[in-house]
Design a protein that fits this description.
The chain has 304 residues and is mainly beta. The protein has one domain: Lipocalin (Beta Barrel), CATH 2.40.128.130. 7% of the residues lie in helices and 61% in strands. A twelve-stranded antiparallel β-barrel has the order 1-2-3-4-5-6-7-8-9-10-11-12. A hairpin with a 5-residue loop joins β9 and β10.
Length: 304
Amino acid sequence: MIKSLAAAGIAAVTVSSMSFAADLPARKGAPVAPPASTSCLENNSLATDVFGFTVGSDVTDVGAWGGTLTGNGNFTARGQRLTGVTGVAQVATGLFRCFEVGPYVYLNGTTAKDKFGFSGNSSFYGGGVEFKYKFLGRDVHGVGATLDLDLSGNGNRFSGLLGAGSDSAFNLAARLFLDRELVKDKLYGAINLEHISTYSSRTGVLVDASQFNIRAALSAKVLPNFFVGAEAWYSRSYLGAGYGTYLGDGFFVGPNALWAINDKWTLNAAYQVQVAGKVRLAPGNLNLVNYNQHYARIKLGYAF
């Protein structure tokens, strides 16, 4: 059971705690035609949440502020019942042109019960800061591109059949966000490439880990202030912070929606389910060791 909770902890840190980072609404200024020297500016800004778990390339304007409250949920129903909930609070601002910084804090609670009736629980709490630099804009180059660096740390407490304990971890995520307008003012697409390393203070059950993720999404504007879309996520997990021993993979799909309530408030909802996966040296068509079966998110954003 502790192993299950530890695996859930790694998945929560490397999936949940990294998926919320800096998907913030940005209060944009009056549209301007961007010269090549300021190619990160966009005539038609796009909320980064419009693609669900996949992140768009736009960044907050210089001096503007945004904030979000996010609820992430994950659960597994096959083989054991595992449920985790994570709450996140984040703010972000544009420090200078094309560059955004966004500190955040988060809190998670996870419970698990296997088919034999053994149960356990874990929790982690922490915070971090994310840095985003947009180096290509859709208006100038046809493709928006942003580099992202996310640094965070957390403490973890757990208890179960084999006892209780605690540890801490440092997490590093490096990502590339790409997006493009496919049909003018109607259809948008995005791709994310992501590396995550987790460095744990404890050896044994919970050890250093790494993960490589590819996300892709489409989002359609069905009303002037409402988007609906679909996305896919493929992930590979490894033992060791630098892609050591391959542990398994997972493939997820699901819908998402964004409601721009007004020029300040946005509401985003997204859901993904694992449809295929493999644990190294184990049978089965799902990976419920390194990942959960279901992921859901709801996020409320505000532009100051």
